[in-house]
Amino acid sequence: LKQFAMPKKVIGIAMGGFSSEKKISVKSGNQVYETLDKEKWKVYKIEVTSENWFVLDGDEKLPIVKNKFSFFKKKKELFFDVIFNAIHGSPGEDGKLAKILESLNVPFTSSNSKSAELTFNKKRCVDFAKENNTLKRLFLSRAQMEKSHLRAETEDGLEIGLSLEPGTVLRNGDVLEINSQLIIIHQLPEKVIRVM
Question: How many CB atoms lie within 10 A of CB 74?
Answer without folding.
Answer: 7
